[in-house]
Queue: 2 jobs
Job 1
Amino acid sequence: MTAAITGLGAIASIGGNVGELFDNLCAGRSGLAPMRGFDHAKYNARQLFEVDNRPAEGVDVPKRATALLGTAIREALADAGLGPDLDGNPVLIGTGLRELRSVELWWRDGAPFEAGDLHFGSELRREFGAADTHTFAGACSASLYALALGADLIAAGEHDTVVVAGVDVVTESMFGLSDRFQPVPPDRVRPLDVHRKGTILGEGAGAIVLRAPENPGRARLRSVGINCDAYHATAPDPAGVSASIRSAHERAGIKPSDVDLVLLHGTGTPLNDEVEAGAVREVFGEALETPLLTGIKSMTGHTSGSAGALSLVTAVRSLETGLVPPITGVAERIEETEGMRVVLGTAQQENPTVAQVHGFGFGGVNAVAMLEVS
Amino acid sequence: MSLLTAAQPVLPGIADCAGLLSAPRDTEPVDPAAVLGKKGLRYKDRATQLGLVAAKLVLTEANLLDGEGRCTDPRMGVLVSSNFGNVDTVCRVANTIAEETTRGVSPMDTANASSNVIASEIAIRFRLRGPNLMLCNGSTSGADAVRWADSLVRAGRAARMLVIGVEPDNPVVRELSGNTRVLDGGAGVLLESPGAARNRGVAGKAVLRRCVRAADPAGCARELGTEPALRLGSGESAPFDLDARFGASSGALGVLQCAASIGWFSAGGRGSVHAISGSETADATAGLLIGGADE
């Protein structure tokens, strides 16, 4: 399976488009800020990686996720040289929380909201004329799962152009449930650090235009491996994570020693980072020192369903520029990363040609994408 | 295209697929513990419990469970369609935070706050390690789940896919959907590649011939082609409107229609079935063309 990646779009706490996002990642800038929309008195934590698209401080409105999605898709279509008409083109959206934030505002505060806007198809029909739209809920690997399905449509020759995107904004229910168990909330997200205290949620959207392989593109999608641990509702399983990486390699015909860059899921939770580092060690074996390893969540936060799309956008920019953004805020690396070339603190110039992007989610849903320079 | 090799409804008083089109309805809600036993059901939301029931019934019918109740095909995947599965949990937790701060919320709601909880709980209980996904895609969601399951099978990502469509009935769903009669249940179907079915010596009960999307139901019917012997959908041209019969079925509809098609063939129906979901006012419509296994 191969598809051309011909357009990218992104929005997150640290950037309103792909260029801003990548520049800020490489500069080590974090989007962590005091919470903008929720009542501080109700939570232990006071900080999130939010996108500042509310009408005013402390004023929350429905359909912010839908707005972010539209922004990312518009940028990606323009980047791909396509018009705003998506009639006939499949649009696949990966999300963890859909418009559930709007449902909270509707139920609790009486904000206007209709059931038809819980999924993103209604707005995509209104704005882009799209009638073949699909909202997939797959927790934190959702956008890479959607990428797998979109790539399958291209591989089967069913469509020439498919738009894949990921989006999420923070819901009070998801944030509140994690807040309940963090009486001392983490001061920042420290992936792979011995003293990491957990993750902090973020918001964002990423969009990717996939086209048939004969088209020129910014990068090539070589494969996406997907599976499920079938193990635990919230904890990852090392065997399932390793299997998803192997599956991506096999589908692409790529050996571990071919991989120059790994964009880790890297959430900064004790369990994820340990399991993920262990899986990389197991799969890469003797090639462990070949790839550079990095991740974006120390600066974007954990953006849930959009995390995979934002990591993928970052990986494409690294393949294009040769520049790899760092993980920030790490004082002491966990021993599971011994011998690995983790990019810490400052960006590193090293022209990677093959990149691997991880997305793992609640429920043990794993997805790994392999990319190659165009 | 894929074969439909097993299907089970999860609705009050409906014992099998043929019952979807003819049997009188019962009013007593489905009791998940009667199928699953009580163990492990506490803290699972209603939609997850209904999904587990559908999965168990289909896997049992297909003879794909071992003595410990785990699937004998560990590469099987599961696709679940539900629009309203966890909205009651989300609303309840948001209320609790407003009234009691986060100190009032229960850890048992954590998994339920994620929209894919039904699919992951089914995978864990029956050990399904293949592709695992939820579709929350409005009125076409169930039909779309069937389409993506077929796509995953044809792409070689799984030899067989379990497809579940469920919706719960509760006050939040009634108010959000604007329906006073809401389905509390759903259905499950098993899709297999012809080779996978042959390998374990089973025949299809129906064949999924085509999956289409269009802007409106008329466009869908056009794309599906061939004059059907049975139309499933809504409005005057569709004599069997499952929503009218069982309550608004939302994300469960497309899967229920597949089960009803199998019921129709098993009762001696011939020809093909058009199953259409969505309406002129929805963002899109989806259609499935389902044929008999022996044609």
Job 2
Amino acid sequence: MTQTSLQSSTAPSHQQEMVLFLHPSRGWSSLNLKELWHFRELIYFLTWRDVKVRYKQTALGAAWAILQPFLTMVVFTIFFGRLAKVPSDNVPYPIFSYTALLPWGLFTKALSDAGRSLVANRAMITKIYFPRLAIPIASVLGGLVDFALAFVVLIGMMMYYNFAPGSDYHIAVTPALATLPLFLLLSIITALGVGLWLSALNVLYRDINYVLPFITQFWLFITPVAYPASMVPGRWQLLYALNPMAGVVEGFRWALLGAQSAPGPILAVSTTIAILILVTGLFYFRRMERTFADTV
Amino acid sequence: MSDIAIRVEDLGKIYRLGSGVSGLRPRQDYRTLRETLTTRLSAPFRRLAKDDYEKDREQPAAEDEYIWALRNVSFTVRKGQVIGVIGRNGAGKSTLLKILSRITEPSEGYAEVHGRVGSLLEVGTGFHPELTGRENIYLNGAILGMKRAEIERKFDEIVDFSGVAKFIDTPVKRYSSGMYLRLAFAVAAHLEPEILVVDEVLAVGDAEFQRKCLGKMSDVAHEGRTVLFVSHNMSAILHLTEEAIVLERGNLVYRAATPEAVDYYMASGLAQIGERQWSADEIPASAAPFRPLAIRVKNRQGQVVDTIRSTEPATVEVEYALDDTIVGLRVGLYLTTARGEYVLASFDTDEKAQFERYRIRPAGRYISRCALPPDFLNEGRYVLGINASSYRIRRYFQEERALTFNVDGTDAPGSQWPEARLGPVRPRLAWQIEGDSLTGIVSDMDEGRLYDR
């Protein structure tokens, strides 16, 4: 069933040699995560390359990683916070929206980078073999550096509002903070899942290039970035949670702002959907992978 | 542990020709969603769950939309053998290497590869122009499958071999193309796979670079590793490999010791009598608006022939069409010996006045005709290549091995001695012989054929 079965995948020694069988494959392939693990250094180098190259020859450099979410936050604060008076769970609106913009930025960045990654790395794909999964995975991981930089700004903002005279905001360190890495992981799972689907589809259908900006824009509306999820009527909550980013964003707010109760049901649905997207994405990717070099 | 390194059984690879896009380039074979949706809607009985690739395979629609790049190819390579793969452009050489290095999978048959494969279908795969030489060594090494520790261990050696030590912390976008190639090859040369698969990577770079590559390749070949080596350069094939296989239109047509295989290839593989015509599907889309039609060799009488006489003038004609105006076009020939050594390169606008006159060539049909003078080429087999480019702007079309022809040496200078003359040219040079006691033997020489003409 698999394209190439590694007969003995242990490190090749002189006694035990590695035999590859190459033959036409049909149907679904195994994920072969073992081989992917073998190539972990390649994933590391590709991630490192993406990060290193990203802001080369830009005047502001890595400041862009901060400016993008920060300026979006400013615009949201003016229009949603001040003008539309969107409620913000008793937290200053800038902090409220910026907390959501962190995972959201990671997600959209990963989506557009991963979606285009295979086509952008066409030269590699047609000239050398390595597990193709390494490319979209590296694109998604590359966003973590931007995330970390933007996160520092969040801490700064929290400090500011905490100590600003007349502010009734106080940094809330709750046990929920310990769950933050899990929500980060969930956002990576979601981004990788969707990214895998889009990248594999993009090899065959370049329409994805045009669909991508639209998807992210549309997705922003159905994610509680500019508004709280509590605005969605109760009976629609579970349907709303089918968007895994809803669970991620609510989780981030819960862990960092500690204002509301844990987003239990939403989170359960979102997590399930995120894992479903990732697993189907992995299998779809592996299935399409065998023709990448011919069609990209 | 068997002593087989590679076993290939009935291997085949089919490609779908791009719809609307000419050429055998599967990479242009991407579709838009709309196309797929319409196909699917118009064929509602097909199982939607099948992906397109399988659908294609199950129902190879019109035969002419598909092309077998490789078919029914079987061979085995023993461990430590160094095998050359020769064949014309499009004969399936690269497809074979791509299958063996797992880049693409076969459509039928199977291959069995024993050992770690290192493939070198291009040097510098994954090089990023913004990264420094040092960074690219690590990146490229990882892409080629080296471990970081391994790269670290060989780092100094790689830098040494590349000869760009001074610029190792400069972004490679500032490198000259020669430096870039040297660094890229240096990384690749330090791969240590059990089986090495090499495509025409030596075709790039200057003479010194090629010499260095050949040297390294021959080291690898002598280290007892298994090597599959594709090249158009027959002298490299002869130099590096013991045995060769000849591919022709996707089939394996011959396998023998290298000198015999090269002879076979030279004698039959390219046999197209005196003329090579290009059909639409042989011209890559990237050539537009230049469209090669034919290249032919004509003798003094104007007949298209595959053998010309060394002592007579001949003509090489390149016929082509321009679908749009091209500025600064030059259409030229490469002439090489059958063994791949260059004899000359010449363009139709080499003369300055000619270049000015034909600087702008409007759309239409053209023939560029080149006169080969008499008493010019030595007897033997030659290969003509064609190149159409605008200098420093674009290369429209290039085919290094477009046509072969023979030169017959009858009556050429020195042919009274039935010995092979070295070198590709055989001009009638003016010799003068002086000697103080020469008068006595003049009469003898008068009878010799030396003074026949």
